[in-house]
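Hi there. Long-time user, first ticket. I'm pasting a complex I've been working with (about 294 residues overall). I'd like to know whether the download I got is complete or cut off, because the file seemed smaller than I expected. Thanks.
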Amino acid sequence: MPAPATTYERVVYKNPSEYHYMKVCLEFQDRGVGLNAAQFKQLLISALKDLFGEVDAALPLDVLTYEEKTLSAILRICSSGLVKLWSSLTLLGSYKGKKCAFRVIQVSPFLLALSGNSRELVLD
Amino acid sequence: MVRFKHRYLLCELVSDDPRCRLSLDDRVLGGLIRDTIARVHGTFGAAACSIGFAVRYLNAYTGIVLLRCRKEFYQLVWSALPFITYLENKGHRYPCFFNTLHVGGTIRTCQKFLIQYNRRQLLILLQNCTDEGEREAIQKSVTRSCLLEEESGEEELSDNGGEEAAEATE
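Hi, the file is complete. Here it is re-exported in full:
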């Protein structure tokens, strides 16, 4: 008996996702500086306000997780604001007079992708 | 052809206080708009809009202002105008707001729009007029605007209409 003809169905996911997720880490030049979650978010918003003004400081930005020890966080921003947030994080130079820099570790439109990072994979 | 394209924003300064319009100065206004853009759109907006920005025409009697900005960033300027809430002059603060009447690509199109707008405003003034002397003056201006087709005559007309508008609002 001839095999039944297989029907192919191609599903193309064209809708761009509404949010982008960024994993970032804040580094200070000197040790011993701590920020709590509210101060961290205030720092992000002031960076946006500096570069892009009050209109873009009001972008719906969420800090999903924050670790105070390592100063790393996962942020969520709507896709139209990703370029603005990333550029304002790049240009942020100091917090309360102390020099600091944001390191962007991973960016993805899917939150699940941030759970595993092949750069941090350790092969035993 | 390769040239820098601009957008001209025709705005009207609306205020309760009649002294507000008379204290309009083009440098003060330019500085106020630049500060507002810096506040609303940040360093990026201030830099982007200030390249081709200029106050091209200012009429203190009617409160008409013509602003010029680059075509790529005219929306930043336009969206910052509603955030201007007061005009400061010699320590006095006058609350006011900017009403954008027309956006054009050249000064000529803005002028054509302004002429038609002033004609319509004259007819509205005629309807709301109470004093007989003012009524006659406005009727004379209206008939003159219908007969005359030169631009210089119509520019005088818009000034006259402005003076009567300033009197009528007081």
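A couple of notes from our side: The longest strand of chain B covers residues 92-104. The domain at 1-105 of chain B is CATH 3.30.70.3250 (Alpha-Beta Plaits).
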